[in-house]
Amino acid sequence: MKNLSNFNLLIIILLFSSCRQQPFTGTVHIIPYPNQIAIGTQYRPIGKNLSIYLSPESGMDKDYIEDLLSDTGVKCKFTNFKWIADLTFDIEPDTIGLEGYRLVSNDYGTKITASNTKGLFYGLQTFRQLITSQNNTLVIPFVEIADSPKFLWRALMLDEGRYFKGKKEVKKLLNEMARLKMNTFHWHLTDDQGWRIEIKKYPLLTKIGGKRDSTQIGNWNSNIYDGKVHEGFYTQEEIKEIIDYAAKRQITIVPEIEMPGHASAAIAAYPQLGTEKQSIKVPTRFGVQYHAYNVADPKVIQFIKDVLDEVCNLFPSETIHIGGDEVPKGSWTGSPLCHKFMEEKGMKDTHELSEYFLENITEMLSKKGVKTSGWQEVALHHSPEVNARIAPRFAGVYCWSTIGKRDIVPYTVANEGYDVILCNVNNLYIDLAYNPHKDEPGLTWGGYVNEFTSFNILPYNIYCSARENTAGEKNNLKTAGKGKIQLTEQSRPRIKGVQAQLFSETIGSFDMVQYYVFPKIFGLVERGWNAYPEWSPVPNDDKQALYEKARAIYNAKIAEIELPRLAADGFNFRVAQPGIKIVEGKLYANSPIPQAEIRYTTDGSEPTATSTLWEAPVDCSATVVKAKLFYLGKESLTTDYKND
After folding, report:
1. Is 366 exposed, middle or buried (0-12, 13-18, 19+ CB in 10 A)?
2. Residue 13: pLDDT above 60?
3. 639: left (phi over 0), alpha (psi -120 to 50) or beta
4. From 174-178, 209-213, 334-338, the region with the lowest mean pLDDT
5. What is the dihedral of CA 302, 269, 285, 375, to 10 degrees?
6. DSSP letter (8 states) at residue 357
7. Average pLDDT score over residue span 105-124
8. pLDDT per position as a tens digit, 380-415
9. Phi, psi (5° rounding) for residue 50?
10. Is 1 buried (19+), middle (13-18) or exposed (0-12) by CB count in 10 A?
11. Which sign does the torsion angle of CA 457, 462, 468, 469 carry?
12. Contacts of 243 (CB under 8 A, 6+ apart)
């Protein structure tokens, strides 16, 4: 906790200033919750016309402020006179943290200060969430906030290699990320099934690689295809437009150009890039493909250099993500050219060939002043000498393996000198299904992920991040980390942030993108800002009571504030299904959203918005009961209950 300056004086001001006002009776719901907040008993009406002063060095965008606050019913008018403004934005160098801010609201108005524009921007997002209605008037409570994020990397990854979404859809997602104080958009632009970024020197990458004849549907083992052409890519001008749009929302875009694996779309466009030098089609099936770049061929390395040149010139990000995962080594072992190259270089196996490639690419990017990022495979199984050479070239190693015996990977990688982005599969792979319901879409290989499993992630207590295993059995949090590799004190600063992954093998539409993201993303938002929750278990105390209290508060924020806002903004989101049970002839039900309606049937038909409303335990002798939750125009999947 940070100490607030003049805190005692602040409390006096908050409690006793403007005694003519009625007491503030509202509830302050902020996501992510501030590090330290003092809420007074009074409030200040702000009306529908808000005068705003922006200091010349603030860097704040007037159009964005107007658009953001219009959703609350506020109309902005900007003034050059600070002393008459209701809301002021000022740069003050000593403000807490690189992205921190202070917000003070009292009888004189609201003042937001920060050491840079990012901090002011996040203060604005908090101000928006503080606006509420009392006695049919827009008000803001008397409050002082001192706030800054724990992590400077709070990210979402969108996979468009598998399914192209489009400029309008990406902007909509970026806009919501900004409201949630997320600052990094990881853009997965190439994969086996599609190449989505224009490279002017190699036009066939998008002409051929950006199009496939059909698409596998269902799970990875499915033999069903939709028979429809899928295509699309972004021109460089469109990418520049999206980068600018993100920058105005304080979001950095990190592009991912997969290499040396996941390269089938590029090889389909230019067959000479592969080890077999033979024509292939862009794959229509998901999963790991056989084809990889022939990294022993200097012409292939030149191709990659040319691509990275254009990518680096487009994106102002300090890092480029190169993937580096799931390389099909059989593609290299079956190549005479690779064998010859390995013999000439004295390499014993394909792992040394991959290290050679990795050192080459990271050095290439380093000379451009750009750091490399990659999935966890780029940092595994190297000698201390190799780690010492390449670790400083990495901005982040994205570690996802947090189930089974490989759950030691994130802390192992950090201890070996790499900066780490936590991507825990069982917390943050939001393309996984919400639960085992037979109709719930999504993959299940890493378990199930919902808004609570994302909330549960503990960056500095990673073995307690899963409260259940993949079989749904409760973990013993008191002993979860026993005998496992621990994060050293020296390595703690190397945990740089958290990121949610949305791989899109099963997500063809933007409507479903939203379904998977909301409400799962709210857990990451909280933990990216507040990495040390008081309910983090210790060996002699699982702190279950504290956890249950925090979870209830978090759920209330989602149900009462965030879902209604998403509905008003035209977003799709998931509504969880209700629980039902018959006990001693009475039907009981519960809802994760108290404000929602539970509708049920007893004749085997699917519930609708006009089915019987459950309000309290009711007599029931039916053999089959079906129930759904209805909220804000959305409905849940059906809960089936058999009364045996």
Report:
1. middle
2. no
3. beta
4. 334-338
5. 20
6. H
7. 96
8. 999 999 999 999 999 999 999 999 999 999 999 999
9. -115, 120
10. exposed
11. positive
12. 253, 314, 315, 316
User: How far is 281 from 564, CA to CA, in rounded Å?
Assistant: 45
Q: Which of 276, 258, 367 is nearest to 323 (CA)?
A: 258
What's the pLDDT at 21?
Answer: 58
> Cis (ω within 30 of 0) for the bond into 328?
no
Please name the residues in contact with 397: beta carbons below 8 A apart, sequence gap of 6 or more. 373, 374, 375, 376, 378, 379, 413, 418, 419, 420, 421
C-alpha span between 415 and 487 (Å, rounded): 7
392: left (phi over 0), alpha (psi -120 to 50) or beta: alpha
Structure tokens at 144: 């002082």
CA separation (Å) from 598 to 157, 429, 583? 34, 29, 18
Alpha-carbon distances, residue 502 vs 88, 185, 575 (angstroms):
38, 11, 19
CA–CA separation, 180 vs 178, rounded Å? 5
Using DSSP bridges, classify how beta strands 49-54 and 87-91 pair: parallel, antiparallel or unpaired.
parallel
Residue 644: strand, helix, or coil: coil
Neighbours of 19 (CB within 10 A): 9
For 313, residues 6+ apart whose C-beta sits below 8 A from its C-beta are: none
Q: Supply the pLDDT for residue 7.
A: 44
Checking if the pLDDT of 561 tops 60, the result is yes
**Residue 221's pLDDT is what?**
84
CA 286/CA 477 separation, integer angstroms = 36
pLDDT at 631: 98
In the chain, the N- to C-terminal Cα span, in Å, equals: 53
Tell me if 115 sits within 8 A of 100, measured CB to CB. Answer: yes
The model's confidence at residue 509, banded by pLDDT at 50, 70 and 90, is very high
> What CA–CA distance (Å, rounded) separates 27 from 35?
17
Name the band, by pLDDT with cuts 50, 70 and 90, for residue 329: confident
- Per the structure block, which two tokens stand in for 112? 């937001």
Find the mean pLDDT for residues 307-319: 98
Structure tokens at 625: 């009961």
DSSP structure class, residue 256? E
Please tell me the total number of residues recorded for the chain in this structure: 644
Under a CB-based contact definition with an 8 Å cutoff, are residues 327 and 261 in contact?
yes
Mean pLDDT of 348-364: 96
Beta strands in 48-183 (DSSP E): 49-54, 75-78, 87-91, 101-106, 109-114, 132-134, 137-147, 153-159
Strands 211-212 and 216-217: unpaired
